[in-house]
Amino acid sequence: MDKRKFFINNRQSLETAFKYAAGFGFERSYQVEVRPMTRSLEQNSKLWAMLGEVSQQVNWHGQKLSAEDWKHVFSAALSQQRVVPNIDSTGFVILGMSTSKMSVAEMTDMIELINAFGAEREVKFKDA
Question: Which of 19, 38, 81, 127 could be a cystine partner for 96, CB 3.0 to 4.6 Å?
Fold first, then answer.
C-alpha cells in the first residue's frame, strides 16, 4: 500500500478520503493525521523574494544579514522561541518554529510582518 495524502476542503473530498481509508481492512494499523494546510508554494515563493529584498536593502545593527538569517529573525518575532547556549558555549541557538511547518494563516502573518517591517525601513518590494 502506498502513502496517500488528501486535502479536505469540502464534503466531497472528505467522502473520497473516507472511502479510500474504508478499503484498508483491519489486518494492520493505520495512522490518520488531520491538521491545517501548510504554506502554499505561492506563499513560499513570495516569502523568499521578500526575504531577499530585505537582505539586500536593510543594514541590521551594522550587519548585512542573509535571506536565511532574516527568515529566522521574522519567524522568531511571530512565535515564542527559546534561546539556548550552543554546544561549546561560544554562542546561542534559537529554538522555535520552522517556516516549512507554518500553516497558510501563519505564513500570511509572516508575510504581513515582513511588509510592515519593510515599509518602516523603505524597502522596495518588486511585486508591490
Answer: 81
How far apart, in whole angstroms, are the C-alpha atoms of residue 38 and residue 116? 22
Which triple of cell numbers denotes residue 34?
488531520
Query: Which residues, 6 or more positions from 57, have their beta carbon under 8 angstroms from its beta carbon?
Result: 118, 121, 122, 123, 124
CA dist 41 and 94 (Å) reads: 26
In order along its 128 residues, the chain shows pLDDT tens digits of 567 888 888 899 888 888 888 887 777 787 777 877 778 888 989 999 999 999 999 999 999 999 999 999 999 888 878 889 999 999 998 887 788 888 888 999 999 999 999 999 999 999 75
8 Å CB contact between 56 and 121? no
Please list the residues that pair with 103 across neighbouring strands: 38
* Its pTM surpasses 0.85: no
Which conformational region is residue 23 in: left (phi greater than 0), alpha (psi within -120 to 50 degrees), or beta? alpha
Range list of β-strands (E), the chain: 59-60, 63-64, 82-85, 92-95
